[in-house]
Inverse folding.
């Protein structure tokens, strides 16, 4: 290659990275500068020496550019991270819920259980990854556009965060002690389990049952444990309780830390839930009529011991729930009363 | 260790570059003549830093430029503007104060051990 062409190539390598409107001017200036740096008649080595001095064309071009080479600038970075932190757990929760609801509703009793579960798990991972990619992409794009095109004003962070900072605004900031904090994940998981619980309540006849290993076909449900019409007759109260539970969770989300009021609300909610649970469990018609004879036959026991077993199981479940709830309620009051 | 020293001295020098460049632009200069003048005075400035800096100064209306096409090759001449000169004078006195202050601090460095 001719040395003159080499100069052109260097200049081209710089200017192709620059905005169209000042390319020509920069090209001309660079060209004459390079020639200025060279002696009257020069060798290729001398030219190389000069170009080496000017350095990497990409770096030179970057210095010419006014726009920064980062995606999310410092003005909006904090807000960006905040929004991400808020959006990501909810996006994951919703993706998982949608996938589970979809799988549960499309599950048929004739299907073997284990392959259905593993299939759902696979789809879950897939949809969570997809949702995360979407969330990252759209939030990043939005913030990138805000950062780049919201003018050069320094008060962009004020626009994003509300007001201009003033020492007086410190008075409104609440220091959340670590021990009193309510984790966001706690709320998200709470809502997750509430929705899953409701889902299984309404589909109990298809999931909660006696499972047996079938020859070569894996685990299959033989019969549901509950008498479905009886179980479902409680639906309004179950829906109301679930809605209240989610309401309390959202209240926790808003408060961010344990307060007395929140601890009381939480305790009332738990007591109410347990009362409803005991009320429903106390209905003797709740258990599917067919389960009794089937189990008696299968395990070769008499009816009395089967009844004892059912009662024992019921009370074990209720007592463990009561104990777990009592511990949580006690803990919430302890945290609410804790001094900073 | 040495690279850290490099980082600090580059940082230290960066702030003074504008002052150094402006000081030479009372007479029109083209890119390479400016490099030579600065080099002769012992001021090291990378060319890849200088040319973008000149453009920025032009955009900020601190310097003005004209293309001279009468010679064998076209050259872009930069000269300080009226506004730029006012700025330069203020910057100069700022620099004078700063060096005096810093000098005091650095000198004081020696006798702090004696206290």
């Amino acid at each position: 290659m001719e040395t003159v062409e080499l100069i052109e190539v260097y200049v081209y390598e710089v200017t192709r990275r620059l905005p169209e409107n000042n390319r020509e001017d920069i090209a001309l200036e660079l060209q004459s500068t390079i020639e200025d740096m060279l002696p009257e008649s020069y060798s290729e080595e001398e030219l190389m020496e000069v170009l080496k001095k000017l350095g990497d064309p990409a770096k030179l071009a970057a210095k010419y550019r006014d726009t920064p080479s980062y995606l999310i600038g410092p003005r909006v970075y904090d807000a960006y991270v905040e929004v991400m932190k808020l959006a990501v757990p909810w996006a994951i929760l919703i993706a998982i819920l949608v996938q589970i609801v979809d799988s549960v509703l499309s599950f048929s009793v004739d299907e073997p259980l284990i392959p259905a579960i593993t299939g759902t798990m696979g789809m879950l991972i897939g949809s969570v990854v997809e949702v995360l990619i979407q969330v990252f992409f759209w939030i990043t794009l939005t913030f990138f556009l805000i950062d780049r095109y919201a003018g050069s004003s320094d008060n962009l962070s004020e626009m994003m965060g509300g007001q201009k900072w003033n020492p007086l605004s410190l008075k409104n900031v609440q220091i959340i002690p670590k021990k009193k904090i309510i984790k966001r994940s706690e709320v998200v998981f709470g809502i997750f389990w509430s929705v899953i619980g409701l889902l299984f309540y309404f589909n109990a006849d298809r999931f909660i049952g006696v499972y047996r290993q079938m020859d070569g076909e894996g685990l299959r449900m033989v019969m549901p444990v509950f008498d479905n019409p009886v179980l479902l007759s409680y639906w309004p109260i179950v829906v109301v309780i679930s809605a209240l539970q989610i309401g309390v969770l959202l209240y926790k989300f808003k408060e961010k830390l344990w307060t007395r009021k929140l601890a009381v609300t939480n305790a009332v909610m738990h007591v109410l839930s347990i009362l409803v649970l005991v009320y429903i469990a106390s209905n003797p018609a709740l258990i599917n009529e067919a389960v009794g004879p089937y189990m008696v036959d299968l395990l070769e026991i008499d009816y009395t011991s089967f009844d004892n077993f059912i009662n024992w199981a019921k009370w074990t479940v209720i007592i463990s729930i009561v104990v777990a709830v009592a511990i949580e309620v006690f803990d919430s009051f302890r945290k609410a009363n804790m001094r900073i | 260790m040495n690279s850290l020293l490099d980082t600090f001295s580059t940082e230290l020098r960066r702030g003074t570059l504008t002052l150094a460049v402006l000081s030479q632009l009372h007479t029109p200069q083209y890119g390479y003549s400016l490099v030579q003048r600065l080099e002769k005075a012992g001021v090291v400035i990378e060319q890849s830093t200088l040319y973008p800096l000149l453009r920025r100064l032009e955009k900020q209306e601190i310097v003005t430029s004209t293309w001279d096409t009468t010679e064998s090759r076209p050259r872009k001449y930069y000269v300080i503007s009226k506004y730029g000169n006012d700025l330069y004078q203020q910057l100069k006195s700022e620099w004078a104060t700063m060096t005096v202050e810093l000098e005091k601090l650095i000198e004081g460095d020696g006798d702090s051990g004696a206290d």
User: Anything to note?
Assistant: Chain B is about 65% helix and 10% strand.
